[in-house]
Structure formats: structure tokens, C-alpha cells
């Protein structure tokens, strides 16, 4: 399935195909942001699309990607199981915890959890 714009809980979400091109560079993130300008408010990126360096905070890649989404006033939802990354990094656990408390970047296990977040902020 290609990346597709979906209405999820009343919000336009660009749901990215897990088999799509990897997000391994800042330009890859900008390409997703450009695709979102077709009307999306949220970009849901499966963990399978994210380069491993995203989960190694010392590389700075996660920060670059997340800052791009904030700058363009788009929400980013990282969708999928990241437990193996969390198990090895206290810094990543802290980042996920703080991100999930805020409005722009969320780490969710699946699209149902994203729908619940979107529904909660609409109330």
C-alpha cells in the first residue's frame, strides 16, 4: 500500500506504508513533510521505515527529524513496537516519555493508539 491520507478520529493523517522508502536522512523527513502538505495534520511513520540511527540518540538524527516536524507545525507519530530500543537506552525512554506528554511528537504502539490520542486531544 502506498502512503495514504486518512481521516482518523476527525484528523487528516498521512499513514505511511511500512514497506515504503526508509527515512534515513533529513531530506527523507522533509519529503514526508512535503507529502503531508496535501492536507495532513499528522504523519504516522511505522518504525520499520525509520533508520536505526533514529533510535540511537547520540547520532542526533531523531532530534533533526523531530525538529523539522515541529518547525512545519506537523505532528509526527512513530507507530510500532520500540521496546528493544527502549530496553537499551534510558535517554530514549526519557525522550519517549516527554514526547508523549506533549502535542507534536508521539510514540504509539499501533494506529488504534494513535486514534485514541487524536480523540483525546479533540475533547
Give a verbal description of the structure:
- This protein is of the alpha/beta class.
- 41% of the residues lie in helices and 20% in strands.
- The protein contains 5 helices and 5 strands; from the N terminus they run ββαβαβααβα.
- A 5-stranded mixed beta sheet has the order 1-2-3-4-5, with helices on both faces.
- Strand 1 and strand 2 form a beta hairpin.
- 26% of the residues are buried.
- The mean pLDDT is 96.
Proportion in β-strands: 15-25%
Strand order of the largest sheet: 1-2-3-4-5
Tell me roughly what share of residues is in helical segments.
Answer: 40-55%
Which shape, going by the Cα principal axes?
globular
- Give a quick account of the main beta sheet: strands, pairing sense, barrel closure: 5 strands, mixed
Structural category is alpha/beta
Mean pLDDT: 96
Q: How many angstroms separate the termini? A: 31 Å
Q: How many strand units?
A: 5
Radius of gyration: 13 Å
Order of helices and strands: EEHEHEHHEH
- Uncertain spans: none
What's the total helix number? 5
Question: Keywords, please?
Answer:
123 residues; alpha/beta; 5-stranded mixed β-sheet; 5 strands
Task: Please outline what is shown here.
The chain has helices spanning 26-36, 61-71, 83-86, 90-101, 111-122; strands at 4-8, 11-15, 42-46, 75-79, 105-108. The protein is α/β, with parallel strands linked by helices and 123 residues long.
Spell out the blueprint of helices and strands:
Elements: E1 4-8, E2 11-15, H1 26-36, E3 42-46, H2 61-71, E4 75-79, H3 83-86, H4 90-101, E5 105-108, H5 111-122
Parallel strand pairs: 2-3, 3-4, 4-5
Antiparallel strand pairs: 1-2
Helix pairs in contact: 1-2
Amino acid at each position: 500500500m502506498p502512503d495514504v491520507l486518512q481521516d482518523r478520529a476527525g484528523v487528516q493523517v498521512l499513514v505511511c506504508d511500512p514497506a515504503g522508502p526508509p527515512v534515513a536522512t533529513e531530506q527523507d523527513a522533509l519529503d514526508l513533510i512535503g507529502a503531508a502538505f496535501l492536507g495532513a495534520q499528522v504523519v504516522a511513520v511505522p518504525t520499520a521505515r525509520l533508520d536505526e540511527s533514529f533510535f540511537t540518540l547520540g547520532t542526533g538524527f531523531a532530534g533533526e527529524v523531530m525538529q523539522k516536524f515541529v518547525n512545519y507545525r506537523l505532528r509526527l507519530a512513530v507507530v510500532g513496537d520500540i521496546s528493544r530500543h527502549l530496553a537499551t537506552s534510558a535517554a530514549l525512554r526519557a525522550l519517549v516519555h516527554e514526547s508523549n506528554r506533549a502535542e507534536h511528537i508521539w510514540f504509539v504502539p499501533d494506529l488504534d493508539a494513535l486514534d485514541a490520542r487524536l480523540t483525546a486531544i479533540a475533547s
